[in-house]
Amino acid sequence: MPIDATRPYDDQNIFAKILRGEIPSRRVYEDEWAIAFHDIAPCAPTHILVIPTGAYVSWDDFSARGSAEEIAGFVRAIGTVARDLGLVAPGYRLLANIGPDSGQEVPHLHVHLFGGKPLGPMLAR
């Protein structure tokens, strides 16, 4: 069910539990600003979720309240993951859903990183 990205942060969401180590994940990257792990229902041969370590509901929330260091660290983490997985040369897609119209399901900012095959048009026509 899509969530309202303007709601307060819910520290019981699945990504908060993954950050706390309460739910296992197949991590591919971790630093003080972000963690990245395999999606449990991949939509491409490579489907990684990158989340900030801070409590942010959406990109809007993060861009309004995150520090410059957090934002830079998160963006750099996404780039590092893409490079480490060999996705830069063939190409990859980033997707961040914000709010109910986009279908955001988890109320913690996350970026989907897709790659490993030609991905087709950005949106279904």
Architecture overview:
It is built from three helices and five strands. It is an alpha+beta fold. A five-stranded antiparallel β-sheet has the order 1-2-3-5-4, with helices on one face. The radius of gyration is 14 Å and the shape is globular. The model has no long low-confidence stretch (mean pLDDT 94).
In a nutshell, what does this entry contain?
By secondary structure, this protein is an alpha+beta fold. It has three helices and five strands; from the N terminus they run αβββααββ.
Layout: helices, strands, pairs:
Elements: H1 14-19, E1 27-30, E2 34-38, E3 46-52, H2 59-65, H3 68-84, E4 92-95, E5 111-115
Antiparallel strand pairs: 1-2, 2-3, 3-5, 4-5
